[in-house]
């Protein structure tokens, strides 16, 4: 039977329901990409929608043409209504079919929205080289290493790294504007830097900066002592060597034996260590010198030497 009051009630119920549902529907599963699409290299991809949890992280991932792995290029967190808006930029710089998807973690790892596929406009694939790095500077030059820095290059899409050349041979790569190089002593070099972008374009090399490494410092290892010593005369005995011990001491023993006594001070904390022994012999015969890594009773011998006193 026709009932006007009941129809009016049903209409109000439906209107209220739509008022509740429409905002949610307007949020759900909305890509900036249409499928299929053709986009620019630097296109920004966005997705808004609803995920299964509100305590998860939502990732925007891309798969390059021919690739089998997904790479994240954006992340976001849903609100208390499980709604999330996420966007990301990455260089879409390879011709072919790209895919992007939205995944929530933790969870099944499966896409929470349909995967979108698209192509990059061939007209906008990056063929433009980065600018040339400038102000290449060599610092902290030693006989076997140096630091090299330069001013960053620019690129229409983005500089992804640098190659560093010594005498036209690539010896290092860097994602920052500095690197350390291994060198040989007494050698002349030229150094230059080249900038790269993600599409494999490279800049012209920077100007060649020449430099020459110094000679390697000469360290005399072992004992130095007078060739002839007479009793009662002052003599200097020196030992220079590489020792891992933090402190080294020189000890000496007279020909008659008996007790060892210290003949030299500590050897410092960096290699090579040097121990100088000021010594006035009072016995004829063969004196024994030892360098030890500490007190005589508890240390081990690093080096030994004898001096004959006449
Ligand atoms: Ca470029």
In summary, what is this structure?
With 310 residues, this protein is mainly beta. It has one helix at 4-27, and strands spanning 30-31, 38-39, 44-50, 57-63, 71-76, 83-89, 97-105, 116-120, 134-139, 145-151, 159-166, 169-174, 178-182, 188-197, 209-212, 222-224, 235-241, 249-253, 261-262, 273-279, 285-292, 301-309.
Features:
single chain, 310 residues, mainly beta, Immunoglobulin-like, 3 domains, 5-stranded mixed β-sheet, 1 helix, 22 strands, 43% strand, elongated, disordered N terminus, binds calcium ion
What does it look like?
Strand 4 (57-63) and strand 5 (71-76) form a beta hairpin. The strands form six sheets. Strands 2-8-7-4-5 form a five-stranded mixed sheet, with no helix packed on it. A four-stranded antiparallel sheet has the order 12-11-14-15, with no helix packed on it. The protein folds into three domains: 4-124, Immunoglobulin-like (Sandwich), CATH 2.60.40; 134-212, Sandwich (Immunoglobulin-like); 222-309, Immunoglobulin-like (Sandwich). It is elongated, with a radius of gyration of 38 Å. The chain starts with a helix and ends with a strand. By secondary structure, it is mainly β. Helix content is 8%, strand content 43%. The protein has one helix and 22 strands. The structure holds calcium ion (CA).
